[in-house]
Design goal:
This protein has about 375 residues and is of the alpha+beta class. It folds into two domains: about 1-205, no CATH class; about 220-370, Reverse transcriptase/Diguanylate cyclase domain (Alpha-Beta Plaits, 2-Layer Sandwich), CATH 3.30.70. Helices cover about 65% and strands about 10% of the residues. The relative contact order is 0.08.
């Protein structure tokens, strides 16, 4: 009994965590983009939406000589299904809002396809198609949208089951099997998928974050630089990558202790995050070495480097300075080459940083690289 109570408590915590999770459309889209899977995903989603359209098309063949509500519902479902399929092939990768509207349109198309069937038991079995949309939501969106989708699935399946129960010739066992099938495929599998994805996403995010400071680690920096170069390949202003190495940080550890030194590193990381804003990237790749990267739409590389230098110098307990090297990358930056690009970026900025350190520290040195 004690284990059962503990299990219920843990389940309650898991459900609460699942319910409050954020919509992951942007994160999962970036994940697919990092791995060059956007185009294959578009094709698969177009095929899936097209396959769903086959259901109302078959219904049209059955009801072609008997126009009525079923025929009209099948026509609307077919047209809507074709449009939803073409969206993935013709239009660019959608925004989160357009993705949500795609989900709504898909649910409506499946519902119309189910009620269009002359045999209601066939329409009830067709509710299993909601599982395709539920699987999409599980990957791209959050728990609340999945819950709304499940509620809609229950309404459609419940309505068809109620109509069948009112038919004296309908077997209760057949209806029960169809309902269980729709529930398992259309509801249980998407929920289980989203639970697993939540755990995987948490582990993946944790593996890219420096546990001491909360900024990215080296692995997270590589992924972030890949995303920045991919998004800004046509950016005429280029990209700035900075390496900041704290001056004489060992003396701080020796004098004040490593615990105080860790607090200084955490404060510097927090200040750097605030300094570069949402568009920039901050990472800690060594004991007292930070990397800052940002697309240069609003500032110059030297100005950004001096801003980082002054941000670090604002720490006063104890006073801290840094040697900053910055590389300005311009031209058509090649994307999808994370290892080569990250090594080039950080090596050039690292060399400039060592020039600043040899000059006495608390200064900035710059380099540039132009892609032909």
């Amino acid at each position: 009994m004690i284990r059962f109570e503990v299990g219920l408590a843990q389940l309650g915590w898991a459900l609460s965590h699942w319910w409050n999770r954020q919509d992951q459309f942007e994160w999962f889209g970036s994940y697919l983009g990092d791995r060059q899977l956007i185009e294959p995903t578009r094709v698969l989603l177009a095929i899936s939406a097209g396959a769903v359209t086959l259901v109302p098309l078959v219904t049209l063949l059955d009801t072609a000589t008997r126009p009525g509500f079923g025929f009209a519902a099948a026509v609307v479902a077919s047209v809507l299904g074709v449009a939803l399929s073409l969206m993935w092939l013709v239009l660019p990768w959608p925004s989160a809002d357009r993705s949500r509207w795609w989900v709504i349109g898909s649910d409506v198309a499946i519902a119309l396809a189910c009620v269009a069937r002359e045999e209601l038991i066939g329409g009830l079995s067709g509710c299993a198609l909601f599982g395709l949309v539920g699987g999409y939501i599980a990957f791209f969106h959050g728990a609340r949208m999945l819950t709304a989708h499940i509620a809609f699935t229950f309404v459609v399946a419940g309505t068809l089951a109620g109509l069948l129960l009112g038919d004296d010739q309908a077997a209760v066992s057949t209806i029960a099997v169809a309902v269980i099938q729709a529930v398992l495929v259309g509801i249980a599998i998407p929920i289980a998928t989203q639970f697993v994805l939540e755990m995987l996403a948490s582990d993946a995010a944790a593996s890219e974050v420096d546990t001491l400071t909360g900024v990215l680690n080296r692995r997270g920096l590589e992924r972030a630089l890949e995303r920045i170069t991919s998004a800004g390949r046509q950016n005429a202003h280029g990209l700035a990558v900075l390496v900041a190495d704290l001056d004489n940080f060992k003396e701080i550890n020796d004098r004040y202790g490593h615990r105080h030194g860790d607090r200084v590193l955490a404060e510097i990381a927090a200040r750097l995050r605030g300094a570069v804003g949402a568009s920039g990237v901050v990472a800690r790749i060594g004991g007292d070495e930070f990397v800052v990267a940002d697309s240069l739409r609003w500032t110059e590389p030297t100005r950004l480097a001096n801003h980082v230098l002054h941000t670090i110098a604002a720490v006063s307990d104890p006073p801290v300075t840094a040697s900053v090297g910055v590389v300005h990358l311009s031209g058509r930056i090649p994307g999808r080459q994370s290892v080569m690009s990250t090594v080039l970026f950080t090596d050039l900025a690292d060399a400039a940083m060592y020039e600043a350190k040899r000059s006495g520290g608390n200064t900035v040195r710059t380099r540039s690289h132009h892609y032909a």
